[in-house]
Amino acid sequence: MWKSFVILVEILIFVWLIRSPFVQYLFGDIHDSVSNWMIEVSEIGEKKMLSSLEGAIYVGLPNLKGYQKRYFSEVLSSTESVNKFYKHYCIGGDINPNIQGAELRYVCTQMSQSDVLAVN
């Protein structure tokens, strides 16, 4: 009987401790850290593909102006923005104010040959 009472008291203290604000804050902080780490790990492959595409574009177009480089760093920031660019300017034929002609065709060719479009 005494052992059962002691075990019950220990369980109640443990539950009370777990529900305390400090422990909740600590668990929340640990959760945020782990989830941020897991997001970073999941994005490694995407960042690698985007970096490889960026390198291919900059190697083939070494004479890009500053505003064009800033534009492409924004376009190459995520697979969604690359897909949007490809859909509008490569497939749709919309006029791009930042890049045109042979340079645009080169960028479209590099994008179509990369694995970035296959992600979505």
Describe the structure.
With 120 residues, the chain is mainly alpha-helical. The protein folds into two domains: 2-42; 45-119. Helix content is 80%, strand content 0%. The mean pLDDT is 88. The chain crosses the membrane at residues 6-28. Keywords: Membrane, Transmembrane, Transmembrane helix.
Characteristic key phrases:
single chain; 120 residues; mainly alpha; 2 domains; 7 helices; transmembrane; membrane; transmembrane helix
Strand content: under 5%
Helix-strand topology string: HHHHHHH
The number of domains:
2
The overall pLDDT, averaged over residues, is: 88
Principal-axis shape equals rod-shaped
Give the count of helical stretches.
7
List the helices and strands and how they pair.
Elements lengths: L1 H17 L2 H22 L1 H17 L5 H10 L3 H13 L9 H13 L2 H4 L1
Summary?
The chain crosses the membrane at residues 6-28. Keywords: Membrane, Transmembrane, Transmembrane helix. This protein is mainly α.
